[in-house]
Amino acid sequence: MAREVSSISRVGTSEPFELQASRSQISYHNTLFKYGYNPAILNVEETIWDAGGVYAYPGSAVAMTATSASGATDSGVTVLISGLDASYNELEEEVTLNASGTATTTGLFLRVFRAYVSGATSPAGNITIANGGTTYAQISAGENQTLMAVYTVPAGKTLYISEGIATHGTGTSGGVFMTVRFLVKPFGGVFRTQVKLDVAESQIYYPFAYPIKVTEKSDVEVRAICNKNQSNAMSASFNGVLVDNGDNL
Prior knowledge:
five-stranded antiparallel beta sheet, 2% helix, 249 residues, 16 strands, 1 helix
C-alpha cells in the first residue's frame, strides 16, 4: 500500500514559520537571502560584491546591457536580470547573448540586485550588466549568478532582516583585520550604519532578536575595509522576510 508523504502543516500548526514562508504558505510574505563576495579588498572601503569598488546606483531607470568578456564564445547564453523599475516595482527580464556576446534589455531598470544564468549553458567569461560604462551587476565565470550583498526593497513592501554573517579570508600577514559595515539608505535619505564590526580571519554571525525594519524603496548593502594595504577576501550575507504593506495583515 502506497504511503502519502504529507507536511505537518496539513495536519497541525507546529511547522516552523520560516519553512512555511519559504514554501509560500503564508500570504503576503516572501523570504529574502542575499550573499556577496569580494575577492580583493585593500585599505579602501568597498561593497561586498563581484565587481569591486563601492557600488553605484542608477540615477534613473535605464536599459541594461549584458556583455560577456568572451564575446562570441558565449553567444546563446541566457541571463535573467532581476531588479526594480522606475516606480520601484519588481522587474525581471531574460536576455540571450547575441553573436557578439551582448544583449540589451527592453525594460528599464532603476535597480539591479540579482542576475543569473537561466539556461543550460554556462558562460566562458565574466558577464557584466551595465549602462553607460557603469557596471550594476556581474556574473563571474564559474559562478553562474551574481554574488552581491546589495538589495533595494520594492515599493509596497517592508523588509525585516533577521540576521547577517560576515566572513574574512586568511590575511597575508599578522595583525590584519576587516571592518565591516551593514548599511541602510532610506528612500530620500543617506546611508546609515546599522551594524559595524571587526573580523579577523574568521566568521561573525549577528542575529537580531528583534528584526531590523527596512521600509520600501530603501537601499541595503554591506561594505568592508582592510586595516592594512593588502588584498583580502570578504563575504557577507543577510536574510529576512518581505511583508506586503497594507491592511491585509
